Amino acid sequence: MANKLIVAPAPHVHGSESTQKIMRDVLLALTPALVFSVVAFGWSALAVTCI
């Protein structure tokens, strides 16, 4: 029993960015696609996105 299995959490990359900042960046990245979908398909595309 010399070879015991060592269980530890997976290593994760830690950064200084908060979850709030990352999600704000995600929303900013999705904004052009949302604007295009409203222009191409009308306001119903915005309603579908909100649901």
Word description of this protein:
- The chain has 51 residues and is mainly α.
- It is 61% helix and 0% strand.
- It has a domain at 19-50.
- It has helices at residues 19-41, 43-50.
- Helix 1 (19-41) packs antiparallel against helix 2.
- InterPro entries: NqrB/RnfD (IPR004338).
- Keywords: Flavoprotein, FMN, Membrane, Phosphoprotein, Translocase, Transmembrane, Transmembrane helix, Transport.
- Pfam families: NQR2_RnfD_RnfE.
- The chain crosses the membrane at residues 26-46.
Please describe the topology of this protein.
Elements: H1 19-41, H2 43-50
List the keywords:
51 residues, mainly alpha
Strand content: under 5%
Which percent bin holds the helix content? 55-70%
- Morphology call: elongated
Multimerization state = single chain
- What is the mean predicted local confidence, pLDDT? 89
- Main sheet record: none
Distance between the termini: 55 Å
Which regions contain 5 or more consecutive residues with pLDDT less than 50?
A: none
What is the tally of helical segments?
2
Structural class: mainly alpha
Number of strands: 0
Please trace the helix and strand order, writing H or E for each element: HH
Report Rg: 21 Å
Transmembrane segments: 26-46
Pfam families: NQR2_RnfD_RnfE
Keywords: Flavoprotein, FMN, Membrane, Phosphoprotein, Translocase, Transmembrane, Transmembrane helix, Transport
InterPro entries: NqrB/RnfD
